[in-house]
Write a structure and sequence with these properties.
By secondary structure, the chain is α+β, with helices and mostly antiparallel strands. It has one helix and three strands. A three-stranded antiparallel β-sheet has the order 2-1-3, covered by helices on one side.
Length: 72
């Protein structure tokens, strides 16, 4: 699979947690990689309005070839 990155080798990424609706404790953490900054910003804005989700970050992620990651 080929992933198009920016000139800096990054991709727009949104990281968020799903929260327990009863007490607000985190139940899972998710990362979504987008093809465009506009898509990432729109999803981050949507997540920020949800009571059962907590936006942790919306930023560029560095892409490294799998072979450069020890343990993979």
């Amino acid at each position: 699979m080929n992933i198009e990155t920016s000139a800096f080798g990054t991709l727009p990424t949104v990281i968020f947690q799903r929260l327990d609706v009863r007490d607000g404790t985190p139940t899972s953490t998710h990362a979504i990689v987008f093809e465009s900054v506009a898509e990432a910003k729109a999803e981050a804005a949507r997540i920020a309005t949800q009571d059962h989700l907590r936006l942790l970050a919306a930023d560029d992620a560095v892409v490294r070839p799998r072979s450069s990651q020890p343990g993979f």
